[in-house]
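If it is no trouble, can you show me the amino acids of a protein and the tokens describing how it folds?
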Amino acid sequence: MPTQFHTQADHEASESLAYYFCRMADTIGVPRSVALIYNLLYLSKEPLSFSEVVERSGCSKASASTGLKLLERIRGVEVVILPDDRRTFYRAELSLKRLVTGFIQENFVSGVEAGQRILDSPTTAPESELSPLLAERLESLRTWHEALRSNIPSAALERSRR
């Protein structure tokens, strides 16, 4: 864990934050190693290199690499390039809006868009040939799907179109 904390209170608070991030990771189905990496970067004043992330988080190189890649995809970390240093450094994203938007984009939008394609063409036959029950349920599901799409933040939907 971060070494800049010297008091017992700081240590306890940093442990509580690590626990918080792990609980949130469990809630959304993200590996705890990702939570520990994010916590480490969140509490760091300066960007950390990959080797510092491995050393301070206690994660294996493979877990750290996978975790940092996931955090990059959801824009939970910023990659920092320092002059005169060939290593890659990482800094935590501190904006909740950007974190949530990135997470939604990575985990939900592509699935919702694939679902839309399925609902647009559920059969090769004309829909007029569907039984009344199936036609009613299909229309209901389309309504549900549209409600789901309308609740995805527009920023996440815009990123998916890029």
Observations:
- The chain has a mean pLDDT of 90.
- Residues 8-92 form a domain with the Arc Repressor Mutant, subunit A fold (CATH 1.10.10.10).
